[in-house]
Amino acid sequence: MNWKGHVILGLIFGLPFISSPEQIFLVLAGALYPDLDHDVKEDIVKRGIIISGGIVLINILLYFFKKSLFNIDLFVLGVSVFLIFLIPYFSEHRTYTHTIWSLFFVSIIIGFLSYKLSFISKVFAGLISLLMVTNEVLLGKIIIYAVFVWAILDIINLNPNINGVLHYILPVAVGYYSHIVGDSLTPAGVRVFYPISNYKLRKKGGYILIIFWLIFVILFCAKNLNLIG
Q: Does residue 223 sit in helix, strand or coil?
């Protein structure tokens, strides 16, 4: 599945759980991240490694030479972001980045980073997350889809009750989940438990994942409508 397919599928999967522009960007970030293991390593991944590695190095130097300026939160975030770029850098296509383990790890890191940056601007935080996984050319094309979905949200006026850090983590996770579903429906399938297992999730498994998503949507909507306790 190409980037357009993943963007559209991600927005479809994410629609029941989003109510703001930053969440649209986060869904798209999650939907596009797994393919950083493909032909974008030279620009997007290396750029991310250099920037996040620089943040880590600066904090290490501050710790030894200017301890009063050392920021443990910034250091931990820098290391975490560095790791989520190392995963695709050393990953062959549809291996580590297309696993359930990466889904949880990357969603938490990107979501938490956006949460921390939201004090500046929520939209800015979401956009930064999207910039992490795209280049300038792709970003311009993706924004068109984001604006279209925001117009839809403005009309239907969804208001899912998602607060705190989950407001940022859940959209990334749903977008990431949609990518795995999309690739499982292709002939090549995905090894969702790699490297523990080489079992490939194919069409039947992809349909099961869609059913799980539908069940989650129903339960989530029922919870928000106070139909269940």
A: helix
Other CB atoms closer than 10 Å to residue 193's CB: what's the count? 14
Question: Where does the pLDDT of residue 163 fall: very low under 50, low under 70, confident under 90, or very high at 90 and above?
Answer: confident
- Terminal CA-to-CA distance of the chain, rounded, Å? 39
The mean per-residue pLDDT over the stretch 117-134 comes to: 91
**Closest alpha carbon to 168 in 228, 105, 113, 93:** 113
Let me know how long the chain is. Answer: 229
β-pair partners for 173: none
Handedness of CA 191, 193, 199, 205 (dihedral sign): negative
Q: Can you tell me the mean pLDDT for 157-165?
A: 79
The first and second tokens of residue 135, run together, are: 């280049």
CA 14 – CA 170 distance, rounded (Å): 9
The whole-angstrom separation of Cα 205 and Cα 92 is 22
Residue 196: pLDDT above 80?
yes
**pLDDT beyond 60 at 26:** yes
Inter-residue contact 1 to 98 (CB < 8 Å): no
| Residue 115 burial (10 A CB sphere; 0-12, 13-18, 19+) | middle
